[in-house]
Amino acid sequence: MFDAHSALPIPFVVQFASQLEPSALLFLEEPWLPGNIEAMRKVRESVRVPLATGERDPNHLGGPRDSRSAGD
After folding, report:
1. How many structural domains does the chain have?
2. Which of 27, 5, 67 is nearest to 17 (CA)?
């Protein structure tokens, strides 16, 4: 598990996650700002490592901009 704490630029997250693909990473947590659905979608479409929202994401339990749909 690696918690990025929303502190990494999205292009770096994609590059970093791509480098981690061969490892047994459990998941990459919150590499985007909480609630940023478009950033979440971009990362999800670009990498194969498992991703997780963090407890700071206001949409992690559902809401008007449900983060669960970012992988669709």
Report:
1. 1
2. 27
Coil, helix or strand for 35?
Answer: coil
Cβ atoms 48, 25 nearer than 8 A:
no
- Domain range holding 14? 2-69
Q: What is the mean pLDDT of residues 30-58?
A: 84
The mean pLDDT value for 23-32 works out to: 88
- CA dist., res. 36 & res. 20, Å (int): 23
> CA-CA distance, 25 to 38, in Å (whole number)?
23
What span, in angstroms and rounded, lies between the C-alpha atoms of 72 and 58? 19
Identify whether the C-beta of residue 67 lies closer than 8 Å to the C-beta of residue 52: no
Which class for 41: exposed (0-12), middle (13-18), buried (19 or more C-beta within 10 A)?
middle
